[in-house]
Amino acid sequence: MAARSIASLTISFGLVSIPVKLFSATEASRAISFNLLHKACGSRLKQQYICLKEEVPVEREDMVKGYEFAKDQYVIFTPEELKALEEAGTHSAEITEFVPIESIDPVYFDKAYYIAPTRAAPSPTRSSPGRCANRTAARSDAGLRAASSTS
């Protein structure tokens, strides 16, 4: 079975941006899932939310999300407020420096991924190493001659 990418993003370092696809390096084992059944008749059970204060079932339309900031004290959020709190994805990763693997605490190695370049068409925000070299040569012909004459 062919690997499926789980995300598309752009990796950039300096003036170079490379569109890539992200692949999971490992596949989760196919776990068996079970349903809860009523022992007497074998029918599926339905999940029910109960109000701890009033001890009555609460319907989904009567539920709200809240954050407990102190014991039994909550800030309630509307769906619009929760949507505004979501971080917008940039679909990019900027490499600022390379470090030795020994300097990274293993606690950060949760899951392994592979990246592979995509064949996306160049755009004004994306550059290839060759395009960067061509632009540099066009801007500074003397710099290019100096660099090529020393090699």
Report what the structure shows:
This protein has 151 residues and is an alpha+beta fold. The protein is 19% helix and 26% strand. The protein has three helices and eight strands. The chain has helices spanning 79-85, 129-139, 141-150, and strands at residues 7-13, 16-24, 49-50, 57-58, 65-70, 73-77, 92-94, 113-117. The strands form three sheets. Strands 7-1-2-8 form a four-stranded mixed beta sheet, with no helix packed on it. A two-stranded antiparallel ribbon has the order 3-4. A two-stranded antiparallel sheet has the order 5-6. The relative contact order is 0.21.
Features:
151 residues; alpha+beta; four-stranded mixed sheet; two-stranded antiparallel ribbon; 3 helices; 8 strands; 26% strand; extended
Q: SSE string, helix = H, strand = E?
A: EEEEEEHEEHH
Radius of gyration (Å): 27 Å
> What can be said about the biggest beta sheet?
4 strands, mixed
What is the approximate shape?
A: extended
Say how many strands there are: 8
Please, what is the oligomeric state? single chain
Count the helices. How many?
3
**DSSP strand (E) fraction?**
25-35%
Mean of residue pLDDT values:
78
Physical arrangement of strands within the biggest beta sheet: 7-1-2-8
Question: In terms of structural class, how would the helical and strand content be classed?
Answer: alpha+beta
How far apart the termini lie comes to 47 Å
Low-confidence stretches: 136-151
Helical proportion? 10-25%
